[in-house]
Fold this sequence. Notes:
Pfam families: Pyridoxal_deC. Helix 6 (148-166) packs across helix 8 (192-200), helix 6 crosses helix 11 (321-328) and helix 9 runs parallel beside helix 10 (256-266). Helix content is 43%, strand content 12%. The longest helix has 37 residues, at 358-394. The mean pLDDT is 96. The chain is globular and about 65 Å long. It has helices at 12-32, 44-52, 62-73, 95-107, 117-132, 148-166, 171-174, 192-200, 221-233, 256-266, 321-328, 358-394, 421-435, 462-480, and strands spanning 142-145, 182-187, 208-211, 237-244, 269-273, 298-301, 314-318, 398-400, 408-413, 441-445, 448-454. By secondary structure, it is of the alpha/beta class.
Amino acid sequence: MIDPRPANGTDGEDLRVTGAKAATIVAGHLAGLAARPVWQPVPAAERAWLTDQQLPEAGRALDDLLEDARTHVLPHPMGNGHPRFFGWVNSPPNPAGVLVEPLAAAFNPSCAGGDHAGPHLERAVVRWLAELVAFPHPPGGGLLTSGASMATVICLAAARQRAALADGWDAREEGLSGRPPMVLYVTEEGHSCLHKAAQLLGLGARHVRAVPVDAAYRMDVGALRAMVAEDLAAGLRPFCVAGSAGTVNSGAVDPLGEIADVAAEHGLWFHVDGAYGALGILADGAAPHYAGLDRADSLALDPHKWLGVPVGCGCALLRDPGAARAAFSLVPSYLIDDNAGELGWFAEYGPEQTRPFRALKTWATMSHLGRSGITSLVNHTAGLARRLAAMVEESADFELLAPVTTSITAFRYRPHPGDGLDTLNRAIPGAVQARGNAFLTGTRLGGSDALRACFLHPDTTEHDLAVLLDEIRLAAKTLRT
Ligand SMILES: Cc1ncc(COP(=O)(O)O)c(C=O)c1O
């Protein structure tokens, strides 16, 4: 006998009524964020509520769940919706992206492939992203991912297989053992996801070269040349160089054109990590910094960073999509689709099989902003970073640590010369965060502990910059007493 229909089956009326309430709660949450502390620690009782609860035996009503989410989840944000959140690289969600998230969930496709709205919209969105940053985009030359970490795995796997095939063997078939180690070049400022990808792909952490940087934290291309020559002489197999278009520490953009020259000379795959900063090419006067981006074989670009697409959404763009397909395509018999067309399924270009409908929120966000809205968001936030740099330079108690190229300002609090500044600057982000009036994070830059403020929020104002510097001063006082 079949069990009766489950009590939690779709009830359109219940969802309509509760969904309307949810929409009001969501709008109220976003509208109210700026008036609340940027971030506060989750109180112990709330943490216990969130962590320790048990799966209920009987299913609960939608209305109850909404009430729990309203009272126990929404009051404890990470902070990145607030205009004075300057931490890491986390943007506020674009309202159009928020609007369509429930639609994507209701639609609930797998965007592995097939003939439904998801994959078709993904083609358009990938093309839009490539066009926005002037990356040469052959039809189907990219796919959306969970974020740049996964995009990087895809691009480096494509590079690895291309190098192996060029040398007359197949890395997928044979594995890497017994072959000359493949070497990846990234700068000392390259993102950790490049190292993780290399490790995951079996290249070995010791075969990732940390190329030194110049005073502006950009790749020293002379050093890159020397390292490649040394590795070739030692019988290794240089296969890929990864430049950064916007490092996470200071927003530096590597000399991409010069790197492209070295890649062309040695037949290296040229990857660009533009996860955060590729969109910076749109800022007034910024294009010369990005010269050479259009010569890359692959580009990682995160719509969930500067664009504000709700997390998670990354993108891998490929000059030759066939290279990613050669690295990943494996179509089991139950998935053969005679109508898939020349490009096949998205699942053939990366490790994910079932893929969420990331294209809808990306399409909505980009359409809502339009090209001019995206450009003014980039200009506004890049301008804030430059203004903060100027304020830092005008203040006797602050020191600028790097030129501003994108929308990150790297600096340091220096109330006095001499010792103790590393300890002080390491403690400042936590102390600022705890006060709740601003949120910034720290890093190490050029051997020193540094503060970095990343601007992504369209509502941040110049006044917020003054608040940030004052908050740092006040927080530092609490640390010294
Ligand atoms: C420059 C850069 N590259 C790569 C990444 C990794 O991106 P994701 O967190 O989307 O995987 C980040 C994340 O902050 C980043 O800033």
